[in-house]
Every structure is written in C-alpha cells, then in structure tokens.
Specification:
It is built from 15 helices and 19 strands. It has 441 residues and is of the alpha/beta class. The strands form 4 sheets. Strands 1, 2, 3, 4, 5, 16, 17, 18 and 19 form a 9-stranded mixed β-sheet that branches. The structure holds zinc ion.
Length: 441
C-alpha cells in the first residue's frame, strides 16, 4: 500500500451524465489514477473538502484550434493544453486547419504525440476532409482514421462541393467515423464580416445572412440521409438550421449539432458596446436576439446535444487591425464551462445533469468515445467546479496565448477549481500544474 497515492474528495455533489447520477454529499476516492470502488480505510489520503462543489467527469471540448504546427504565435499544443486544464477540460478535439493542414496520418500522429508529451489534456486529433482543406480531392480518411483521427472536418472552410461531401460521408460511414460540418455557402458569405442585420447596415460592412449556413445544413442533412453517413454540424447559429436538425431527427438520420457559448451569451448588439472592436468578429457571426433565443430553446429541447468552445486564439496584434482585416475567432477554452453554467444551467434551461451532457456523453457519442463515467476502475478524469462563484472574465488571466474574447469584463457564474487527468491534478485552485515530463515551450 505504501506506493499508492490516494486522494479523497469529500462532501461533493457528483454530477455524472454517463451514469445518470446527481447525488449530494458523496465521498470519491482516487487511488493510483483511478476511481476507487469505495472509501478505503487505513490508507492515508490527501483530503479535499469539496462541500458545495460539483464533481463532473471528463469534460470534452470537441471543437478547438491549437494552431500547431504552423502558427505557434497564436497558440501551441502546450499553451492550448494549459488553457484547457485551466478551463476544467480533460479532453479536446483539435481542428486540422493548421499549417500545414492535418491531412495525413503522419500529422495526425504528430499532433497526438505532442498532446501526450504535454500530458495535461487528452488531445484528440481531427483530420481534414479534403487534401489541404482545398475542397478538391478527398484526403486519405482511412489511414488517418487508423492513426487516431476521431473525425474529419475542413473547419474554417465549408466543403463547397456536394459531390465531395457525399463521398466524405460515405467514406466516414465505412470507417464508423463522422464528418464535422462548417456549414456555410461561400457564394453567400464571401467577404462577409458580420451578420446581415441591424449592425451591418449601420456599419456599412459586408455581411452574411443566416441562409448561408442554413442552406448548407439542409444540403448536408439530405446528403447524410442519402449516404447514411454521420454528420455533425459545428457551431450551429441559424434558425433555419434548427429546422433542418428537427427534420433529420424525424427521419432518423445520424445528424448531431453543437453550439458555441458566444452564440448563447451574446448577440450582434455587443458590436456597439465594443465600439466595433474586432474582438467581436467571429465566424459564424454573433446573431440577433431572436436567434439566440431559438438556439437556447433548441438546446433545452435536446435538438442540440453538444457545447463546444470553437476556441480560436489569435495574437493581439492581429485582432488590433481594422474590422475588415482582423481574423475571425474567440479564445474560449477558459470560459466554456462557466458559459455553459451561465447560459443554460443557472437560468434553469437545463438541470446540471442535462447541462453537462453537452460536454460529456454528447460529444463522446459524436466522436465514438466510450468513457464509462466516474465508476470504480475508471481513469480519474474529472473537474471540481464551484457552481456559485461569480467571476469577472479578464483575458490577462488566460493561459491561452489568445486573449481575444468579447466575454472580457462579463461576470460568469460557476468556475472550475480543480482539473484532474488520470488521477493527477492538471489544475489546482486556478493554477495549472504542468506534468513536468516534457520540455514546455
Ligand atoms: Zn468553423
């Protein structure tokens, strides 16, 4: 027993969507990296007094951009991993729009290996749908799948060709994998900087209507029906896209969707509050209040089963450019869990158990993962959250290299205090604890 490391988490409320459990005043033991079957007598343990806290299993953010290889001034796998740990996240799926694009098995393996070397978060690579995400030629999904790619996406760009999307869905089906859809009709969105509405008219800037997204969602829902392939709609943000989702559900198609926190917390009117600062520039753009309400209702109904940050960090100098030139994107890993609580759980749209499905069983199902929940023998991947704590977002406190977020200055409800991966704290009381097994850049 001497070599064993044991941690006892006392008085905690366990919210475990994997086992449909929400119970108060629990005592959870972690021994040698795993959840122990019961409190262990005669074993010295580090005790965490977790009264008033929530214990949730393995939070997965299935849509993040870590920018490595190629744009390491924006983010690296190391800094992104730290941001994840700080945000209470234990697993991330990383988008392949790196430089070069992750479109080969070698790059898929490399990303995975870099993630493991950091040891702070389970880095799940996604591969590109098309070679170089150029939308011309299907990438080698089969070999990337064998190398550990958890799904495929040309995210950042749509798959403009219906023929290519059809082929991708069929190919993914044969692999038991999924196509993640950045749904946007480029002929409608080209040059657009924001949502086609009140703010765009006032600013006189080129804008995109919701139809750009919704028409592509409809097309791809129909292709999912045609092929039987699994389709996941990324960052859904249009009212008519929700109609397409409902249609897919009624037809029994393998279609799922995710919503980004900023589309639930903010509307286009923040552009005015921010004095047209490009910190609000994101794709898909912030929408009007009516759309925000429709998205919340769709989550509450179970039509949308995933929340993902679409963490898109950029350097401050890039975001300091004029609205026309600044890149799209919000740095979201360190606010996503609090956003989930603030937007959905605290106002009562979802119970905590239902709410955390959006970052556990929901994305697991999309990516074909099988974490068992916090049962005896399971790897101790978990987060401890103070659900009452109100905190003001200050991007200077982020571990991410990207400090670009229009949530800056907002008060959010609920804050992750501890993150644990394989029984080891990756974040403790707000401080990231590096694994110390690799050189960190
Ligand atoms: Zn996207």
């Amino acid at each position: 027993m001497r070599d064993e490391t044991a941690i006892a988490i006392r008085g905690v409320r366990v919210i475990d969507p994997y086992r449909h459990i929400d119970s108060e005043q629990e005592e959870v033991w972690v021994v040698n990296g795993r959840i122990a079957p019961e409190p262990i007598k005669n074993l010295e343990a580090k005790v965490i007094d977790a009264r008033g806290l929530w214990l949730v299993p393995r939070l997965l953010d299935m849509h993040v951009h870590f920018r490595e290889p190629g744009q390491t001034w924006k983010e690296t796998i190391a800094t992104g991993s730290r941001a994840a740990a700080h945000g209470g996240i234990t697993a991330v799926a990383v988008m392949p729009n790196t430089v070069p694009v992750t479109d080969t098995p070698e790059l898929v393996e490399w990303v995975q290996m870099r993630g493991r070397a950091m040891g702070l978060v389970d880095v799940l690579p996604l591969g590109a749908v098309s070679v170089g995400s150029q939308g011309q030629e299907l990438a080698d999904l089969g070999r990337m799948h064998e190398s550990g790619a958890r799904g495929f996406s040309d995210d950042g760009k749509p798959v403009a060709s219906a023929r290519l999307m059809r082929a991708a869905l069929s190919y993914a089906k044969s692999l038991g994998s999924v196509i993640i859809d950045h749904a946007e009709d480029p002929s409608l969105s080209e040059g657009a900087l924001l949502h086609e509405g009140r703010m765009a008219h006032r600013m006189g800037l080129s804008a995109v209507p919701e139809v750009s997204e919704a028409s592509m969602v409809w097309r791809d829902v129909l292709l999912a029906g045609l092929t039987g392939g699994a389709l996941h709609i990324a960052h859904i943000s249009a009212q008519d896209s929700l109609e397409a989702l409902a249609y897919a559900k009624a037809k029994g198609y393998a279609v799922t969707a995710e919503v980004a926190p900023h589309h639930l917390l903010l509307t286009e009117s923040v552009l005015e509050q921010w004095g047209y600062d490009p910190v609000t520039k994101v794709n898909p753009p912030l929408r009007p209040e009516k759309t925000r309400q429709a998205l919340i209702a769709a989550v509450a109904k179970g039509l949308i089963g995933v929340m993902a940050s679409d963490h898109a960090p950029h350097h401050a100098d890039e975001k300091a450019q004029p609205y026309t030139d600044a890149p799209f994107g919000i740095s979201g890993l360190e606010t996503v869990v609090s956003s989930l609580i603030t937007a959905l759980i605290a106002p009562g749209h979802l119970t905590p158990l239902k709410g955390f499905e959006l970052m556990t069983t929901g994305p697991d199902q999309v990516l074909g993962l099988r974490y068992p929940g916090l049962c005896a023998g399971a790897p101790a991947d978990l987060a401890l959250i103070d659900p009452e704590r109100r905190w003001r977002v200050d991007p200077q406190d982020f571990y991410s290299l990207g400090h670009n977020t229009p949530l800056s200055g907002m008060t959010l409800i609920g804050q992750p205090l501890f993150t644990m991966v394989n029984g080891r704290f990756s974040m403790r009381e707000g401080e990231v604890v590096d694994a110390g097994i690799s050189q960190v850049s």
